[in-house]
Amino acid sequence: MTAPRPPARCLMVWGTSSGAGKSLLATALCRWAAREGLDVAPFKAQNMSNNARVVPLAEEGDGAHAGGYGEIGAAQYFQALAARVTPTVDMNPVLLKPERDTASQVVLAGRVATELSPLPWHERSRHLARAARASFERLRRRHDLLVIEGAGSPAEINLAHSDYVNLDTARWARSDGGTLASLIVTDIDRGGAFAHLYGTWSLLPDDLRGATAGFVLNKFRGDAALLAPGPAQLQALTGVPIVGVLPMRRDHGLPDEDGVHDFGGGAAKPGTALRVAVVAYPHISNLDEFQPLRQAPGLRLLWARDAAALAEADWIILPGSKQTRADLQWLRERGMAPVIARHAAEGRPLLGICGGLQMLGRQLDDPQGLDGDVGGDAGLDLLPLHTTYAAPKRVLPVRCRFAALAPPWQALSGIEAEAYEIRTGVTKAEADAPAGDEGPCRAALSDGQGSTIGWQCGPVLGVYAHGLFESSAVLRALFGADVRTLEASLDSLADLVQQHFEPGVLQACCPSAWVRSKPAWG
User: CB-based contacts of 465: which residues, under 8 Å, 6+ apart?
Assistant: First the structure.
């Protein structure tokens, strides 16, 4: 008779605020632990982001969900890849996708839960917490270590009674004989780091404060000697040491979770010849897929929020949107529509992805109010397409293939790439625009199952496939560029924590010896 499998050990990454570096540190720890031979997986009970990825609804052999695919936050997707495990919806069971300042779409266990969105916050939290707990329990029965990312700050004392993402998750980790160690990370580049760490630690509930294994200073630049006597004084006040000082690393190769630090353009790289402008409307989604363009040599990626930023662009990209019709109206109000039309008329490449494809069409109809109020809007009329919003939401990975394309997109002809779809809407070519090789609008991309998910008219290309720039074949075809692989970026992050944490700290938080000597569980 085999011994029962003990619950996974849990390492929790808390931050003093949003943007402190939780996601990056959790990703680095997942890869470090995987390289040490641990069976590790990520977990975040609730994420709020419009950057999502398509993943299976369950791990292989897990009967918790029916087959199919769902959505999780992009951060947990990359953390799973860092951990060298298949991403599933249990790793981020609750995803809130902001639609307006006071409303979000609720994605529960990978699928949209429309019945939960209108509930009052506290009542909704009870439902979400139960689902998150179930996902957590499944994960800790299947893995030996969970790297748990908190949300925002665990010291929001006004929300402590309903904070299942930080405080309750930490208590779940300790239940049934489980163990918990926590790290608190802060962004020292913004100033006030010692106060932020002390304040966060001191406001933690009494039963969780003692689990703090260390503080981490993130985004440090300058002379480390200038930190003294801060670390010693902080440890004297709290009993908690600073265990890691991570240097500023802008080229880590992973997207910022919400991209907020990237808006406003950036300095041109040496030898820059191509300017690519991504229209950064208010409800932009899946902007993490453009990370490879930031790294591509000879290319400058710009985030455009006004017409002037588009005027000198060689390329314009209309990305995905969580509120396509509202963002289309925003684009028009900013005077960007005529600039986009002129760009296409001059024969310069114009790309629309998902919501951006819908904007490029002639008409967007929303009879059920799935993308805003019931009604419809005229598109930019640069592709002869008609989109009607209708349930259900389409969430699935695709192996897509480009058809024979005309200039300036001919380099993509015949290329196959792994991608994914996350969309609500059915798009069809208008009857006066046959989707053939000789017609004014040609079918440009298929999903591998006979359906068209992309169209081209001259310099204008619209596709429903997200993630194409993550294909090395696509990058080489369009830009003649090779960029650092995701695997190299993940290993670089693991190297970062290994080099800049105090010796023995990671081993104490994530001991590897017990993995190699564990019994043969059933």
Answer: 353, 398, 400, 417, 419, 420, 421, 445, 447, 453, 454
